[in-house]
Amino acid sequence: MPETHSNPLDDPSANPFEVAALAAADIARLSGVEKHDIALTLGSGWGKAADIIGETVATLPATEVTGFSKPALEGHVGTLRSIRTPDGKHVLVIGARTHYYESHGVRRVVHSVRTAAATGAKTMVLTNGAGGIRESWKPGQPVLISDHINLTADSPLEGATFIDLTDLYSKRLRDIARTVDPTLDEGVYCQFRGPHYETPAEVQMAKAIGGHIVGMSTALEAIAAREAGMEILGFSLITNLAAGIQQTPLSHAEVIEAGREAEPVISALLARVVEAL
Ligand code: HPA
After folding, report:
1. Of the listed 64, 158, 198, 263, which one is catalytic?
2. I need a labelling partner for 1 at 20 to 30 A (CA). Which of 25, 132, 209, 211 fits?
3. Global confidence as pTM
4. How many domains does the chain have?
5. Angstrom distance (rounded) from CA 185 to CA 101
6. Is 198 a residue of the active site?
7. What's the Rg (C-alpha) of the chain?
């Protein structure tokens, strides 16, 4: 099998918005749902939310939707799900995130967000597992993302596309989340390139420049979601304290385990927040 452009986004002459429109048409055809209202990207620890926010109308293997690919990592799910909430909202759940560190290019990273917008979604809920810089935070704790610092030195925007990022992580939506759980803390998310975890010195830098959360996703997706006109709600599950803040070495197994333990609680929280949106 020739490898050339097995994913249409790998063709530099492809228009990523046209590819997203094709993906949205695949989702409509395969799910029978013409239009979605809300999209959720479920990161480490958040997966169970898909089982409780409503009735699953269709589960689609990501590989059947244009431009999506198999997840690179165990612990990440490769499906898209169309769910109907009890009050009749159609929610597209994206369990197939492409990370920047996979080196497939930023178009592939933000394809799910552009596809969500093309399905009609006006609200994008981005979740992740991340390291916490605030010492008062505990592994297993969900926090709201209030803003971000993009340390990837990249952007999903192509050409002279000047997009305002003030209130990128909508205060209105954060306030709605806090009506569900008034104890939710919030912080500034720093996206590093990864896939290595940060050094303690990098964590101190992130802290010095105003960061509270370190991770390897979300910021680029949020920019693309804003470009597409969506309102964004961001949640991080603190799976560990960031390197050097916690004294023990970090491991992917620890991150997955923290996610697994927190999953029932944070999934229930997320389901209630989606209901309130
Ligand atoms: N750093 C970056 N990404 C992460 C971390 C971290 O400490 N924990 C989970 N994802």
Report:
1. 198
2. 25
3. 0.95
4. 1
5. 28
6. yes
7. 18
